[in-house]
Amino acid sequence: MPRQAKTLTAQKDERTKTGVPGLDEILFGGIPRNNLVVISGDPGSGKTSLCLEFLYRGAMEYDEPGVYVSLEEPEEEVVKMAETFGWDIASLIEEGKLIVITVELYDFDKLKSTIEDVVARIHAKRLVIDPGVIFRLYFERELDARKRILSLARMLKKIGCTAIITNEIALDKTTSLFGLEEYVADGVILLYHTKLEDRFVRSIGVLKMRGTKISEKLHPITITKEGIKILAKHELFEDVK
Ligand SMILES: Nc1ncnc2c1ncn2[C@@H]1O[C@H](COP(=O)(O)OP(=O)(O)OP(=O)(O)O)[C@@H](O)[C@H]1O
Ligand SMILES: [Mg+2]
């Protein structure tokens, strides 16, 4: 293989393409492989939809198996939600390209070993934990939460997954209680669902992403029956006075 082609291949492999329309564009090619990304956002801003689409597109378009760890919803609910977008998640599960698993977070070490097991079972390359906010409620002391999150992040890197953890916060009011986003994650994506005059608008912004250039702007989002779409060429408020 000519030297230049080899370099290009290597570069291509360094990214996990989310496959979510518009998202790879504002990340200048995708999430750097094995990054741990936190998606923080308002209620109903599209966190779960984006995570499901990340796994669905990964399995369908990039031949990358994925694992969805739900800390709240039963598996059937997660599958049902994906089906409202027309994504046949049930078939992917049958084919061993996706695992949806609900884990009770009463034992953190058990959560870690469960994740290791299911990731190994289908050689998953993508992992989602939704909603990750539970961590904060589970550990009384901030230091405990931080230590556990760090050890989880280390483990995820070791097993070779690009991971997304969701975080439920009202973006205009507060930041995360234990600073998970700022200190542990490689990337932070913010999803806004905010009132603008007489309507609600959805938007996305990348606060940080180690290892890649990012768009510095807020971009509008639409959620339709086909999934999430990021209008990467548009800036939020560009048409609004
Ligand atoms: N099939 C669909 N077509 C159009 N819009 C949809 C569809 N499914 C969901 N939505 C919209 O997407 C919104 C975001 O849903 P989602 O559950 O992904 O948000 P979330 O940020 O995970 O919410 P939560 O804070 O409850 O966890 C829903 O409130 C709904 O309005
Ligand atoms: Mg959700």
Explained architecture:
The structure is a single chain. This protein has 241 residues and is α/β, with parallel strands linked by helices. The chain is built from 9 helices and 11 strands. The longest helix is centred in the middle third of the chain and has 17 residues, at 142-158. The structure holds adenosine-5'-triphosphate and magnesium ion. The site of adenosine-5'-triphosphate has 15 residues, from helix 3 and strand 10. Adenosine-5'-triphosphate (ATP) is lined by residues 41, 43-49, 84-85, 131, 168, 223-225.
Secondary structure: elements and pairs:
Layout lengths: L2 H11 L1 E2 L6 H4 L4 E2 L3 E6 L5 H15 L4 E5 L4 H10 L4 H6 L3 E5 L5 H15 L3 E5 L3 H5 L3 H17 L3 E7 L11 H4 L3 E10 L2 E11 L9 E6 L2 E4 L11
Parallel strand pairs: 3-7, 3-8, 4-5, 4-6, 6-7
Antiparallel strand pairs: 1-2, 8-9, 9-10, 10-11
The structure holds adenosine-5'-triphosphate and magnesium ion (MG).
Magnesium ion (MG) binds next to helix 3.
